Amino acid sequence: MSDASAPPGPPAEPSAAHSIREFEHGYEEEQRLRGFRSACGFVTATWGLRCPRCGRRDLTEFALSGKGTVAAYTVQNVPSDEFVNDAPYAYVLVDLDEGGRLSGWMPSVRAVGDLSIGDRVRWVPSYKPGVQFERDPTPASAPKA
Amino acid sequence: MTREAWVLGAASNRFGKMKESGREAGARVALEAIQTAGIEPKDIGYTFVANAFGLSEKQAHVGPLINTALGIPEVPSCTVESACSSSSAALHEAFVHVAGGFLDAALVVGVEKLSQLDTLTATSYFAIGADYPFESHNGATFPGLYATIADAHMKRYGTRREQLGAVSVKNHLNASLNPHAHFQKPITMDTYLESPMIATPLRLYDCCPFSDGAAALVVVAAEKYPNPHTEPLVIRASARAGSIADMHDRPDLTSLPASQRAAQTAFRQARVEPGQIDFMEVHDCFTIAELVALEDMGFFPRGQAGAATAEGLTARDGKLPVNPSGGLKAKGHPVSATGASQVVEIFEQFNGLAGPRAVPKTSVALAHNVGATGSSASVHIFGRR
């Protein structure tokens, strides 16, 4: 749906994009990774009221599979206070199978040889408020969106 | 642009560890900049302060404190915050008001004091400058975010760690000739390569230090100061741009779109091409950031800034000197003082005050300052009268 075909009158805001807390609740308790797909095709898992790429409001919520490939990563030896007991660990940027990119941390990666760009990873629910990934041993099956 | 605006005076303290508070250091460099300009504090019409992490000193609203210390308590002030680009954002505000005819003279003060914090606390403060729930909660630190840029850049373009090291060695050499610099000694490539790993592939000597520091600028309307005491910097462009805040939501991990946009706007405003820039100060919070900045602004094709740096093209006596001050890497990075201090370096170069670090040509210079991982960027271009 494009802006041109949108009905007149006050727009309906994206269904669940209202609160950052809902994303965090999803990671921790619902075991749901919230994603939004814009009318332009942009996929994001970051809170917002409009698409950051095209500015339109037609954001459709869907559950991300959390599966994808590593686009870039770093093994951090000097953490911030919330990860002080977890270092070293990897901070990863993951190209999702559905499109879009997500960032997260991987406690299992403790040295640069433990991971490579292009490796398959998947989201795993975590006790921490952010997004956590683990290695995905299953082969990539879902076709790219 | 309605009328010509100049940077008429500029001053910086020695970056590193300040004994005094931010407000004291800010007032001191402000007075020095005003005196350099050859004007009086009462000539100032507005003070734009940058002090992003002032709360770490348990002090907000530092503008009136500085103005009171300068004997001009009636002068209005405000704090401008744009993370590491706070004082270039403050300069932009001063420029807009002066060029637009709303002020004849404005003061820009950038100041930061973080040395009272331990590394863990300082790293955590810096993480606040990223998207806290969507980046920092996901494990990112500032070195970590730039490390992923480096990882992607190395993978795509074959950028090598010796090329990152060349940025560090060059900037430390320049800083060793700069009395304002945090680090005063050159380093060798071996020192760089053997330094501890912070966030792969970035080592300690890829990272700028946590510095204290203060820098100030006086911006005036040219028509009001027909006989300047200094060689003023003509502000030929003052451009800012933004981009998608979260790095993971940007299409290309090897580029900061805000730098590209701000540079394009600045080149258009100044009516110059990248090839006409004699030297520049760029935002090298990490070595990879200097390479990406040079590519984003169009000085080198994608993936080629590393080789150019290793060949010495960006050395102080090279074809295109980059960061003759030592940059954030070695002059230091007192967050909110950094953008103004880049302009202090250009002012000193234009006024023959750079001593042994003088660059060969000083007709047109550029300053590039980034907020966070490029969600904000400023590009200023300066020329001569």
CA(first)-CA(last) distance of chain A = 17 Å
Q: Strand count, sense and closure of the main sheet of chain B?
A: 9 strands, mixed
Would you list the SSEs of chain A in sequence order as H and E? Answer: HEEEEEEEE
Report the oligomer. heterodimer
Indicate the structural class of chain A. Answer: mainly beta
Return the CATH class of the domain at 5-116 and 210-224 in chain B: Alpha Beta
Quick check: average pLDDT of chain A? 85
Content of β-strand of chain B: 15-25%
H-E string of chain B:
EHEHEHEHHHHHEEEEHEHHHHEE
Helix content, binned percent of chain B? 25-40%
Number of helices of chain A: 1
Please state the overall shape of chain A, judged from the principal axes of the Cα atoms. Answer: globular
Stretches with pLDDT under 50, minimum 5 residues of chain A? 1-5
Query: In the CATH scheme, what's the topology name of the largest domain in chain A?
Result: OB fold (Dihydrolipoamide Acetyltransferase, E2P)
Gyration radius over CA of chain A: 17 Å
Approximate strand percentage of chain A = 25-35%
- The CATH architecture of the largest domain in chain A can be given as Beta Barrel
Biggest sheet: strand arrangement of chain B: 3-2-4-7-1-8-11-10-9
CATH architecture of the domain at 5-116 and 210-224 in chain B: 3-Layer(aba) Sandwich
